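Thread: quick sanity check before group meeting

JM: Hey all, I'm pulling together slides for Thursday and realized we never actually wrote out the predicted structure for the chain we discussed last week. Dropping the sequence here so it's in one place. If anyone has concerns about the input, flag it before I start.
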Amino acid sequence: MRLAALWTTVFLTIAGSAAAADIWRLFQFEEDGFAIDFPQIPVITNQALIGDSRIRTDEYYVGIGSYTFMVTAVLFPYVSREQIGSDESLLRRLIDIFVANCAIHDERPILIRGAAAREIHAENCEKGATTTARYYFVDDWLYQIVVVGPKGMVSSRETQHFMESFRLTAKRCIYNSAQHCH
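JM (edit): ok, ran it. Output follows.
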């Protein structure tokens, strides 16, 4: 009887995973210059331009089961960034903040022409979650792609699908020297 219950549980888990893989849909966010697959329609929060800096933030997220999938797109013109430091030093600061309260973490560079990019994994964090994130500085944009979930989720099919589905689109706002978006 126990063996039958175990096999039923295994079958339902496999079937549930397969069903979860079938629910992914492509969402395009032209104004923010990217597209990505989400398992449901994402909740969207927008923050207007901040003062004269021309910094704008949009967040897209879905919580499903024990996972949270999120993309943050920040219009962050280079003119504003260079006041803080180079893209590499700013990326370093963001990563240090990301892993500050985690016992285990690692990172690796991601090679994208014309972009500063990293992938970070963090476990045993203060809030207990396991997190993986990718940061991309591309033109006047900072993209943060994040999955938060249970231990071992870094290599899960859901995490890998979400991370690998991110792609840039042609329409991204880039500021020219006269501070006009084109």
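AS: nice. The chain is about 25% helix and 40% strand. The first strand starts at residue 25 and ends at 29.
JM: adding both to the slides.
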